[in-house]
Amino acid sequence: MLSIRQVSAGYPGVPVLTELSLEVPAGRLTGLIGANGAGKSTLFDVVCGRLRARRGRILLDGRDVTRTPTHRRARLGLGRTYQRLEVFGSLSVAENLLVAARATGAEDPARAVAETLRRLGLADFAAYPAGKLPTGVARLVEIARALAGGAGVLLLDEPSSGMAAAELAEFAESLRALAADGLALLMIEHDLELVDAVCDDVYELRDGQVLPRAGRPD
Ligand SMILES: Nc1ncnc2c1ncn2[C@@H]1O[C@H](COP(=O)(O)OP(=O)(O)OP(=O)(O)O)[C@@H](O)[C@H]1O
């Protein structure tokens, strides 16, 4: 699981996050909403190590990674997807996963790929060029890539962006299955309907801190 404890971070002259704390437990899907510029991407950057926390601590499975470089956090099980689709378009789906499995030093990369393809129902797409997939499937490939690289904690930055409405239900089901499988998922999302339908807990980032989302429908 991921634990963010009293983290302050930002840019010169822009404080952004002030003593922000958030627990992202295993087996749950946690949603993060907030206005444009509230600091959601900044939070992801701090968790990944792209941006340094000025104060506070980040724990990954109980281990303090606050000063750990980004690539080592990935090896310790932290995966991330971006708002813009970032599959390697000219590679096949399986090759996309293989690159990730090798990069994070998986013991048996080919097996990690085969297992992950099966786990996400992507086996039929294994040889398919990733650049030609519908957005919903390509988003799953991004997630699969993180999992093939051994991720147990997943940060998803607006995973529904660019997805057709018809793809959303199936995608939401895949996310639920990952949480049921024991993954810790933190998802930035602007689609509130999706957030409410799919997340176990929803928080709002505002004024540098997170609070449980007010007025969430049951
Ligand atoms: N590299 C940077 N240098 C200076 N300020 C930045 C930088 N990146 C972001 N900011 C500022 O930090 C604040 C938080 O930005 P951030 O991108 O984290 O918000 P966000 O909640 O992810 O927004 P969005 O929903 O639009 O993606 C904003 O005021 C933004 O202008």
From TrEMBL:
Could you tell me the keywords of this UniProt record? Answer: ATP-binding, Nucleotide-binding, Transport
Gene Ontology cellular-component terms for this entry are: plasma membrane
Q: Does the keyword Nucleotide-binding apply?
A: yes
The ABC transporter domain covers 2-217
Return the Gene3D superfamilies for the record: P-loop containing nucleotide triphosphate hydrolases (3.40.50.300)
Q: Name one GO molecular function term.
A: ATP hydrolysis activity
User: Which PROSITE patterns would you find in this protein's record?
Assistant: ABC_TRANSPORTER_2 (PS50893)
- Name the InterPro entries on file: AAA+_ATPase, ABC_AA/LPS_Transport, ABC_transporter-like_ATP-bd, P-loop_NTPase
User: Superkingdom of this entry's organism?
Assistant: Bacteria
Please give the name of this protein. Answer: ATP-binding cassette domain-containing protein
**Organism phylogeny:** Bacteria, Bacillati, Actinomycetota, Actinomycetes, Catenulisporales
